[in-house]
Amino acid sequence: MKISAYSLLALLLILPVTTFSSPNADPVPGGIVLLPLNNEQVASSARYKNKKLAIIQKNNARYLLVGLPLNSKPGKQSVTIKNKRGEKHQINFEIKPKTYKAQYLTIKNKRKVNPYAKDMDRILSEKKRKTQARKYWSANWVNANFTVPVDGRISSIFGLRRFFNNQARRPHSGLDIAAPEGTPIKAVESGTVIESGDFFFSGNMVYLDHGQGLISLYAHMNTINVKPGDKIDKGQILGTVGETGRVTGPHLHLAIIANQTLVDPLLFLPQLSDKANAYFNANK
Ligand SMILES: [Zn+2]
Question: How far does the centroid of ligand 1 lie from the alpha carbon of residue 173, in Å?
Answer without folding.
Answer: 7
